[in-house]
Structure formats: C-alpha cells, structure tokens
Amino acid sequence: MPALLASVWRYRGFVLGSVRREFQAKYRNSLLGALWTVLNPLAMIIVYTVIFSQVMGSRLAGDGAPFAYSIYLCAGVLTWGLFAEITSRSQSVFIEHANLIKKLQFPRICLPIIVVLNALVNFGIIFGLFTAFLVLSGSFPGWAYLALLPVLLMLVLFAIGLGMILGVLNVFFRDVGQFFTILLQFWFWFTPIVYPVATLPAAVRDLLGWNPMAAVIGACQTILVHGQAPQWRSLLPIAVLAVLSCALGLRLFRRRAGEMVDEL
Q1: What transmembrane ranges does the database entry give (predicted)?
Q2: For residue 233, how many other CB atoms are within 10 A of its CB?
Q3: Number of compact structural domains in the chain
Q4: Residue 105 in 3-state DSSP?
Q5: Rounded to an integer, what distance in angstroms lies between the CA atom of residue 181 and that of residue 130?
Q6: What is the mean pLDDT of residues 245-257?
Q7: Sequence-ordered list of residues with C-beta below 8 angstroms from that of 206, at least 6 positions apart, any chain
Q8: Is the pLDDT of residue 58 over 60?
Q9: How far is residue 134's CA from residue 141's CA, in Å, rounded to a whole number?
Q10: What angle do CA 29, 31, 33 make, to 5 degrees?
C-alpha cells in the first residue's frame, strides 16, 4: 500500500492535469458550459418535486416546512448522483482508456482516482449551490451539517471499492457493465430518494436493511431536513462494507492489472 500511494503521488501532475482536461473538454463548445452540471440534476429535482409533491401529494410526516420535501429530494438525488457517477464511470474506465494503458507506463490506479476526483468536482459545484439555497431559505441545518463529511466519506469509499471491482471484471466480462447499468436503475428506485420511507408497507421497509445506500441516503436526509445527526449505529454496516469493498477492489486490481493489458 505505501508503495502504491508513493507511485500515485509521483504522478500527481498527471492525475490533476487529467481532471482539469476532462472538466474542460466536457463543456468545450458549449454555450452554457459548466452550468449543465447544475441544470441536469435541477431538472430531475423539479420533475420529481412536481410529480411526487404536487401531483401525488407526497409529504414528509411530521414536517410541514415549505421546503421540507424539496430538501429531502435534493439530499437524496444529489448524494445518489455522486455514487452513481463514481460507479458508472469506474466500471468502464479501463476500457475507455485502453489505448492509454497500452502506450504509456503509469500506475493504472490513477485512472479510478481521476474518476473519483472528477465526480467530486461536479458534486462540489452543485452541492455548494444547494447549500447556498439552504442558507438563503433559512433551512440550513447548523452544526449538524458537519456530520455530512463522515457520511459522504463512507459513500465515496463504498463507490470506489465497488467501482474498482466492476471496472476490473468488466475488462474480462463485458456483460458486467451492461448488467450494472440496469441494476443501478432498480437500485435507485429501491432507495428512499423520491419517496418518504413512511409511505412504504412495513414488509418493504424491512427489506431496506439489505440496501446499503438506504442508510447513507437516509443519513443525509436526516441531517439536511431535520438538522439532526444520523444514528451512527445504523451506518456501521455500510462503513464495514466500504472498507471491505475497497480492500477487495484493490486486491483484485493488483492481481489482474497485468492481464488487463492483454484483454484490452
């Protein structure tokens, strides 16, 4: 591990330069530029707010604040977006950079790191604007806001580990990426993001215990909607799973890194 970190540090210029180039290339020749980072999730939030809050009459039990449901929705959609971007990009990162891997000698682990940093930049932009909205609307959760840091750290570690596992497996079995794309859609709707947990039947609520993202999303919603620290004990399984997934992803990557070049 120390040798791996040292090699990444030596190539930090390559990593940071790649993050900057990818961000610039994403919005090159675009009139609105980086504003699309905000518009895409904003459009999704508006649609879901109209459908679930206005048309279907969804409300948060015990919270009649005017922006409560919108904040609940933003907390879920934005947090899920970070997880989805890291895992979706990671599962195809080695295939997308096949030519680079074959032509240049550099630590391959830099590629997943670049994916994570790009996702964090995008997330930072829109979550910063969301935080500004919380402050201006008088809905800022106060000191409980700091509890987001360990919660988001668990999410990122879990996404990195899962993404690396998928990325390596997808090199050898291309169906993995297709399967995960479909799975991610079902996973989204099985996570209480656009609907309150209280609206679910008791039997379905019990099944949410098997969904690691439900605890993370729920913790973010508790912090941002109610201004309370989450129940840390409920996050223990996802914390353990995050560490295990990172360990497994790194082990799989180190064992198969040499073979990936031939497969690509």
Answers
A1: 30-55, 67-88, 109-136, 142-172, 179-198, 234-253
A2: 7
A3: 1
A4: coil
A5: 27
A6: 88
A7: none
A8: no
A9: 8
A10: 80
- Which range of residues forms the domain containing residue 148? 1-263
| Burial label, 34 (beta-carbon count in 10 A; 0-12, 13-18, 19+) | middle
Largest CA distance in the chain: 59
Mean of the per-residue pLDDT values of the chain: 83
Closest alpha carbon to 70 in 121, 137, 120: 137
User: The tokens of 215 are what?
Assistant: 């605890």
Q: At what angle do helices 175-189 and 68-90 cross, to 10 degrees?
A: 170
Any idea which residue has 């997308």 for tokens?
96
Q: pLDDT tens, 135-159? A: 888 889 999 999 999 999 999 999 9
Q: How far apart are CA 164 and CA 251, in angstroms?
A: 10
- The angle that helices 110-136 and 68-90 make with each other, rounded to 10 degrees, is 170
Q: Tell me the percentage of the chain whose pLDDT exceeds 90.
A: 35
Residue-wise pLDDT for 198-220, tens only, equals 778 887 888 888 899 999 999 99
Give mean pLDDT, residues 90-106.
83
